[in-house]
User: Which sequence fits this backbone?
């Protein structure tokens, strides 16, 4: 009895797809573990736990709640950007994509967060080059917002953050460049002419760059800036509260400025989660404000746990759900 040769070939494609999924997830896991090792090495766990024990449950919940407010504001901004780009996604989809991406926030250079593009490709069918502007404008929006908050903090305080304006200006310049379609396209073209290689990759980069014009409308920019400012200020305010609870009140805007400056400084280092650079900048600036080391070091550790580590924990919890639902979305898309 002869068999239809097409029947023997059908299982091969799903098997290859599953193997590809395992390879991708394995690579992301390795990136995640590399960032986690660096993060653990830079944070004094014993000291952090001791400080947590001194805080009341209500205080810890408030710190975590302010951080959660930041994540929710930025997730809403992500949804605004996604809809503006033309993606047909629900608020629930955007929320799980954004929060799930936090699981990879401690990968080197945060490249692991590109997993969001993978989930969008599965659920909407959009290629990575079409959704890449979403990640770019989200990061640029963060830079612009933090630069504005830092500039305001420096203008409202005296001393202690002499490099604040320089860092704010640098962040604004990067944010401006990252959202200029013609400028990005010109840089991509120059890169291709310089190397003469990978024409398909550079072509995809040009396609992504052209999509940036969708985010240039004033109402979109104002919504993004408003949500971003509210979110990042919430975490800066949490740092202000924490310092007060530890007996080192330095003023609201100084605390907010130090938190934002340190976060930006950590990001510029390119280390996973800004580890090392952020902590060093935060402790140094607190010392300049007269905060003793016995307060500045544990305060830095605690605020990093309630912001970076908390985001990581949320991401780890959301990642399996986002992965599972994106797989279902891909299957449903293929069966249409």
Assistant:
């Amino acid at each position: 009895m002869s068999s239809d040769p097409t029947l023997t070939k059908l299982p091969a494609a799903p098997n290859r797809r599953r193997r590809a999924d395992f390879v991708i997830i394995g690579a992301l896991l390795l990136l995640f573990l590399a960032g986690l090792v660096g993060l653990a090495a830079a944070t004094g766990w014993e000291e952090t736990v001791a400080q947590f024990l001194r805080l009341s449950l209500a205080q810890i919940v408030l710190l975590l709640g302010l951080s959660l407010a930041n994540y929710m504001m930025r997730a809403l901004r992500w949804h605004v950007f996604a809809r503006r780009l033309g993606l047909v996604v629900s608020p629930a989809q955007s929320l799980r994509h954004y929060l799930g991406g936090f699981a990879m926030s401690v990968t080197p250079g945060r490249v692991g967060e590109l997993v969001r593009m993978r989930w969008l490709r599965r659920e909407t069918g959009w290629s990575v080059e079409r959704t890449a502007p979403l990640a770019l404008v989200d990061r640029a929006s963060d830079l612009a917002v933090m630069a504005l908050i830092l500039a305001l903090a420096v203008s409202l305080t005296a001393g202690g953050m002499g490099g604040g304006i320089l860092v704010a200006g640098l962040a604004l310049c990067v944010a401006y460049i990252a959202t200029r379609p013609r400028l990005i396209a010109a840089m991509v073209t120059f890169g291709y002419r310089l190397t003469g290689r990978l024409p398909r990759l550079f072509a995809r980069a040009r396609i992504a760059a052209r999509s940036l014009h969708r985010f240039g409308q004033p109402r979109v920019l104002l919504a993004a800036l408003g949500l971003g400012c509210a979110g990042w200020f919430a975490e800066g305010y949490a740092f202000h509260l924490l310092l007060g609870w530890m007996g080192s009140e330095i003023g609201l805007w100084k605390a907010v400025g130090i938190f934002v400056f340190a976060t930006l400084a950590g990001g510029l280092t390119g280390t996973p989660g800004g580890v090392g650079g952020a902590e060093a900048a935060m402790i140094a600036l607190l010392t300049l404000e007269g905060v003793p080391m016995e307060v500045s070091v544990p305060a830095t550790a605690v605020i990093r746990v309630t912001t970076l580590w908390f985001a990581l924990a949320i991401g780890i919890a959301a990642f399996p759900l986002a992965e599972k639902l994106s797989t279902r979305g891909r299957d449903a898309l293929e069966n249409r």
About this structure: The CA atoms of residues 138 and 201 lie 22 Å apart. Residues 293-334 form the longest helix (42 residues). The mean pLDDT is 78.
